[in-house]
Structure formats: C-alpha cells, structure tokens
Automatic annotation (TrEMBL):
Keywords in alphabetical order: Cytoplasm, DNA-binding, Phosphoprotein, Transcription, Transcription regulation, Two-component regulatory system
Species assigned in the record: Sinosporangium siamense
Protein name stated in the entry: DNA-binding response regulator
The UniProt record lists the keyword Cell cycle: no
A Gene Ontology biological process term: positive regulation of DNA-templated transcription
Length: 222
C-alpha cells in the first residue's frame, strides 16, 4: 500500500484528502506544519508527500529542501498562490509536480498516480523510450526512422524522457544543458523545443508528448 504524507494547515482540506485517499487504498498520515511534516517523514518514511507551500511555521520550499537532504521521494506541491514564481521555486528546490488550489480531487489523484508509476531508468542500462511513433534509444543515441539530433537536442530530450510525466523547470533545464550562466536565456529552450517537436511530434503545432507549461517549464508525456 502506497504511503502518502499530506501537509496542509487547513483542517477541512486535510480531512477531505485523508478520506478520499484512504478510500482509494492509500495509507495516509497528515501534518499541519512544516516541522511536524519533516519529523513525520523521517519517522514514517512515506512513498510520496503532498505539500502545501503556505505553512504557518516555515515556507513549503524549506520543507522541500529539508526532505531533499535525505530522500528522493516524489513531492507534489499544493499552492493557492497565483504567482508562478512560487511554483518555480518549489520545482527548483526538488518538487516533482504541482496542483493549484482550488483543485478537484480527480486532478490530484491523476498527479499522484503519475508520479508513483513514473519509470526510473537505471543507470548503465539501454533505455528505450517511445515518443509518439518513434523509439528513442538513449544509450545508443539513435531514433527510429533515421531521425538525427544535435548533441544539445539529445541532452534536452534525455532530461525530459528520463522523467516521464514530471514537470521540469526552465531553470533546471537551462542549468543542466547550457550551464548556470544561462538560467535567464529561456529563448534557447523555446528554440530547441521547437526543433525537437518538428522532428518527433506528429503535429508540432499541437504537441502531444513534448509539452510546455507556460512560465513554468516542460514535461514529457508518454
């Protein structure tokens, strides 16, 4: 049974999430502040954390940093904040995805399912990933149909397909592919993502797999 730690300071929301998750066969623990959440996570070892950013004792981003000091478990952020900057900070700190309040339980459940079933590609293997009608072999750096990519296109594509379903922030992609000096050069990403879509998407203007989350980042949808 998947263990989920839900962290939020709204008692009604905590109760509603606990009821809905338990009804779907998840094991649930709750915490109403960041300090309790960090202690619960250390003692209980959840498989996933659902975390509100607006906590009474510390910012949710601090909780993410605390968790990432010792665990790589998935973290889904809940945010009532309209400004995408807070969500970007959470993603850069190590969150895996976000849901904006108010949200429907079905939306949250879909995100939970996505992060819990996310395939982890083991290092040293020969991972093959399907992107639409193309098979991408990350080890051999080949794509079916004779599609050729530049080294930069490969690096960008690999970061996305190794994390299926995960929203990866612009900052993380720019830092990983071009280096920390390029974190504000978002036009690089737009240009290279457009090139990848032209090569791999059936309809580059309406991509089904290499998706943009405006102002946030990109994700690969299998």
């Amino acid at each position: 049974m998947t263990r989920i730690l839900v962290v939020d300071d709204e008692p009604q929301l905590l109760r509603a999430l606990r009821v809905n998750l338990v009804a779907r066969q998840y094991e649930v623990a709750v915490a109403a502040d960041g300090g309790t959440a960090l202690r619960q996570a250390a003692d209980w070892h959840p498989d996933l954390v659902v975390l509100d950013l607006g906590l009474p004792d510390m910012d949710g981003v601090e909780v993410i940093h605390g968790l990432r000091g010792w665990t790589r478990i998935p973290i889904i952020v809940l945010s009532g904040r309209a400004d995408s900057h807070d969500k970007v900070d959470a993603l850069d700190a190590g969150a895996d995805d976000y849901v904006t309040k108010p949200f429907g339980i079905d939306e949250l459940l879909a995100r939970i399912r996505a992060v819990t079933r996310r395939a982890t590609v083991s290092e040293g293997g020969s991972p093959r990933v399907q992107v639409g009608s193309f098979e991408v072999d990350l080890a051999a750096k080949t794509i079916s149909g004779g599609i050729r990519l530049t080294p930069t296109e490969w690096h960008l594509l690999e970061l996305l397909v190794r994390n299926p379903g995960k929203l990866i922030s612009q900052r993380q992609l720019l830092t990983e592919v071009w280096g920390p000096a390029y974190v504000k050069e978002s036009h690089y990403l737009r240009q290279y993502m457009a090139q990848l879509r032209r090569k791999l998407e059936a309809d580059p203007g309406r991509p089904a797999h290499l998706l943009t989350e405006p102002g946030m980042g990109y994700r690969f949808q299998p």
